[in-house]
Design goal:
Elements (H helix, E strand, L loop, with lengths): L2 H9 L2 H15 L17 E8 L2 E2 L6 H11 L3 E7 L3 H11 L3 H9 L5 E5 L2 E11 L12 E10 L3 E7 L6 H8 L2 H4 L3 H34 L9 H18 L3 H9 L7 H66 L15 H22 L4
Parallel strand pairs: 3-7
Antiparallel strand pairs: 1-2, 1-3, 4-5, 5-6, 6-7
Helix pairs in contact: 4-5, 8-9, 8-11, 9-11, 10-11, 11-12
Length: about 375
């Protein structure tokens, strides 16, 4: 029985025949970019299936089963299979074909995983959180600033399987960059894993630069002349979005460090040096996020202090005007008691004298409050 026949018998690869048909369709037309829309226009989760030998794309390698047969028969090169949001049914045949662990398969299908690195025999399973900056004309208390997705990567001796979740983070441009550098791609599946990690971390740095522009704008508004009237909801919204970014970036430090320092069967020593560079970039992104969080705390505290100062100034003004109004109120209240015998009640100059006293007292109070900065 042929190898393909054995694969069909073991894995029930009637489902994989669908992959064959989709691969043939892909070879007939132009390359499909699946960043928009999220699902494949071919009607499947399969984005691409390519075989690489010596860093070069093997022509006509889109059929999954044939590609796996060719690589395992010659023990040369590897298969890169790209998927986008596969269902459990779509992924079942692939998992059996490559011998993937059920727990890793469950994580890859369900998504919403924390960044991590796990080992299942000779296979590495890595989870990366992808981030994307959401453009907006004006930051409001409800603006979405950071959008996240996920990339799961299975790395074996002769295969790389990437599973992407979310509408951003397409790996098409990354694949083209790698194909333009065959020397790096010839280093095997670990080179693809490094390229994905480097791509994800570079996106972290790009997003942090964009978030910094929003923080600078909020800081400018808070310390403007009428900063006390700035909307504090924007500060809280930035802190929430920054927390989402932190959850994507911070947990990745340990997996990248392990890839850079811990010996792995599928990661050659020369690739580990590249992961050390990724670790440095990740540390920079982590430090920037921590600095942004502290800066937002300082901005929020400064804004609350400004609001408190503004309220104190308003209360002083209200108190000063109340004191000015109290003088005529008191005088008018005394002479409005309608007693028959009151001093100056029948005096011809009593009325103008009362106005002179009221005006003099109010003027003295006004000048005193003005001098002390209450008005």
């Amino acid at each position: 029985m042929s190898m393909a026949g054995n694969l069909r018998k073991v894995t029930g690869l009637g489902r994989v025949n669908g992959f064959r048909r989709m691969a043939r369709l892909a070879r007939r037309g132009a390359r499909v970019d699946l960043s928009h829309p999220a699902r494949s226009p071919l009607g499947s989760a399969v984005v691409n299936c390519v075989t690489y030998q010596d860093g070069q794309r093997v022509p006509g390698s889109g059929d999954l089963v044939d590609a796996v047969q060719r690589v395992r028969k010659t023990d040369d090169g590897f298969v890169w299979l790209g998927l986008h949001e596969p269902t459990a049914r779509e992924f079942a045949g692939i998992a059996e074909l490559f011998g993937l662990h059920p727990l890793a398969v469950e994580d890859a299908v369900e998504a919403h995983q924390r960044p991590k690195l796990e080992r299942y025999g000779d296979t590495l399973f890595a989870v990366f959180k992808t981030v994307c900056y959401v453009e907006h004309k004006e930051l409001t208390a409800t603006s979405e600033v950071v959008n996240t997705g996920e990339i799961m990567v299975f790395v074996g001796h002769d295969f790389v399987i990437t599973v992407r979740h979310g509408r951003h983070g397409s790996l098409g441009p990354l694949r083209e960059e790698l194909e333009a550098n065959p020397e790096q791609l010839a280093k095997g599946p670990a080179a693809v894993l490094h390229a994905i990690a480097d791509h994800v971390v570079d996106d972290y740095l790009n997003v942090t630069d964009s978030v910094q522009a929003d923080i600078d704008q909020v800081e400018t508004d808070v310390f403007a002349e009428n900063g006390a009237r700035a909307d504090p909801g924007r500060i809280y919204q930035l802190k929430r979005e920054l927390l989402e970014l932190k959850r994507a970036v911070a947990p990745l430090a340990r997996p990248i460090l392990e890839l850079a320092t811990r010996p792995e069967r599928v990661v050659a020593p020369e690739i580990q040096a590249y992961f050390r560079d990724v670790s440095d970039h990740l540390l920079r992104a982590t430090e920037q996020i921590a600095a942004f969080d502290e800066l937002l705390n300082s901005i929020l505290q400064a804004h609350l202090a400004q609001v408190s100062v503004a309220q104190n100034e308003d209360m002083r003004k209200i108190t000063a005007w109340a004191a000015l109004i109290a003088v005529p109120t008191m005088v008018c209240g005394v002479y409005g008691m309608n007693f028959e015998y009151m001093p100056e009640l029948h005096w011809k100059l009593g009325y103008p004298m009362v106005w002179v006293v009221i005006a003099g007292a109010c003027t003295a109070l006004y000048r005193g409050f003005k001098r002390n900065g209450w008005l």
